Amino acid sequence: MHKLTTALVLAGAVAASLACNRGATTPAPTTPATPASPAAPATPDASTAPAAPTTPAAGAAGIAGEPIPDFPDYPGATRVGYEVGGPKAAEYKSKVEAKFTTPDPVANVKAHYQQAVTSGGWTIVKQKDTPTEVEWTVSKAGSTVEIDIEVNPMGVTKVSVERKNIQ
Fold it and tell me: What percentage of the chain carries pLDDT values higher than 90?
């Protein structure tokens, strides 16, 4: 019974996330929103306000909503997260991560990203492949990309593509 309740709660969270992000062109917030105080001035809605920069201009690897270089968004997927960051000490100078959901099977999503890896001249340095989950780390000329694809118990495929630029 506990597993059924957990599955139903997860399904509700996924459905709410999909409904909230359908057609969204702004990045998902990375921190929880705090309620505005009564004295706080009204803020413009996200459709008219420019996106706030999350990194210095020199470290920006992309603009919210844009595909990660060399790794196009999975066609028809719903973007549920996007983050730009960097630098982080000796690990990397910049990073960008996009997260998606799609009803398509893992095999279809895997084929899409396999084509990007092959055509972009990337080398797979770490890999885990199962029928319900794919985890790859690929590298090329001072950059690494982690691609994670997995299906959740409700049949929704989750995709995460994170690129870290070392140089």
Answer: 43
